[in-house]
UniProtKB/TrEMBL annotation:
InterPro entries: Bact_response_regulator, CheY-like_superfamily, Sig_transdc_resp-reg_receiver. The lineage of its organism: Archaea, Methanobacteriati, Methanobacteriota, Stenosarchaea group, Methanomicrobia. Residues 5-120 form the Response regulatory domain. Keywords: Phosphoprotein. GO terms for biological process: phosphorelay signal transduction system. It comes from the Archaea. The modification 4-aspartylphosphate is found at D55. This is Response regulator receiver protein.
Length: 129
């Protein structure tokens, strides 16, 4: 897939900007950002990105796990979690959304790139069968 569009769902502006800059440096197109779950779902419906990077803890009524569940079930867009949280309860909830990856903050560019590439490849393989 050439120049995939990636949406970033992150409620901390400075972190969202850092992720956007890293994605651009790695050659990806940023399809937009959202800081709340509600806004993330609205933007994903409108822009239909190739992949969504989602933090688990977000501002608003809907957390990142619920965003991922909606996007997976209704929009068929792969989701990769990008979060600082890895407790057993959250991982248990997150795995039921069938994410294509789970990256812990702080992260390296190579972690971001490898998870994105694997997610996009798996999505492509799933759709071509």
């Amino acid at each position: 897939m050439e120049n995939p569009k990636i949406m970033v769902v992150e409620d901390e502006n400075s972190v969202a900007l850092d992720i956007k800059n890293r994605l651009k440096k790695l050659g990806y197109t940023v399809a937009g950002t959202a800081s709340t779950g509600e806004n993330a779902i609205k933007k994903a419906k409108k822009d239909h990105p190739d992949l969504v990077l989602v933090d688990i803890v977000l501002k608003g009524e809907i957390d990142g796990i619920e965003v991922a569940r909606y996007i997976h079930n209704n929009l068929d867009i792969p989701v990769v979690y990008l979060t600082a949280y890895a407790d057993d309860e959250l991982i248990e909830r997150a795995k039921h959304t069938e994410p294509y990856g789970y990256i812990l903050k702080p992260f390296q560019d190579k972690d971001l790139r490898s998870n994105i590439e694997i997610a996009l490849y798996n999505k492509y393989i799933t759709n071509s069968n």
